[in-house]
Fold this protein.
Amino acid sequence: MAQPGSLFHLVKLGARVHPVECLLAYALPYALYHCNTFHALFRANAIAQLALFIPLVQIPSFLKSRMSYVDIGWPLGLVLLACLSWVLGEGYYWRKLLCCGCLLLHGGRMALGALVLFFPYQFPEDLPRYQYAKVRFEKQDGMPASLWWAKIQHDTLQQAFANSTMLAAPFLCMASNRAVGLHPLEVCGGILWLASFLFENWADAQKENFLQACAAKRKQNPSVSAAVLGMQPWNGSSFCTWTWCRHPNYFGEWMCWNAFLLMATPSLLGLEEAAWVKAGIGLTFVFVSRFFFDCLCFWTGAEPAEYFSVRKRPDYRAYQSSVRMFFPFEVPSVNHYRISGWPASSKETLSTRVLDGH
């Protein structure tokens, strides 16, 4: 990995992504661009994403020195991708309806939530995950604070890049596939997406109910603010997803994108393109799952969330020791991070001393 202070940290993708993976991620759009099947749709989406992000995310982020604006721009970009794929895609009607409809619901739910939650979009301080990103940039990556503005622009524009390339790839393939009839994998992908979408929303609903219950009881008992969802008395029944893993909503989000990839596999295999173009797009599919996992676990997801939870909730350490971090079931040879105090206690991440010195 890159050494502290290396300029690579200004352009690296994610949190624990190898430099070779970053290089490939930057190079793979070359294959998408040279795919004749959806070249026009690819260009139109890339231009539209920039037109959305520059005024909505890049300029406000630069003026306010806040990354939080990307939480509005990214899901709106998914909605835009769904609409463009539907309008400009020349593929089979029912396939377009399946993929664009699922993406519209997926991005639309997050976009509506962000528009309501963040109104009036002033962000007096950055969201905790982006505060954590700033400390990581300066303390772990060894970069000067004077370059944080550039990293803000890179990391927010990175989302526009993702919406234009890696995340767009499955939908560009499906929306352009003219083969009549739905492949069994497309049907299975649709079913998996629905199950994952419902699971994610179920977990989010349990969290929202927990927060509302805590707020109602906080006036009588201030210690409720330190309660932990997934531990007594907030573990509910065996159907409490937060007893299965510490971030069931993130797992549901990751599985939604794996479902999109499964849904798009027949369209990828059916592309009549040069072998290197198909191989490049296929590798892009792999990177979608890889980068989402890194994002949800280490970049803006579980790692920054747990750093603040450990500081605010004393019982969270016991929760970490007994419950898996990401997967709601045991996966052999996978680190489930049952580590009390993670990430501050982990040698792989920032130390408590460094973060507390922020």
User: Anything to note?
Assistant: The two ends are 24 Å apart (CA to CA). The CA atoms of residues 344 and 353 lie 9 Å apart. The longest helix spans residues 184-217.
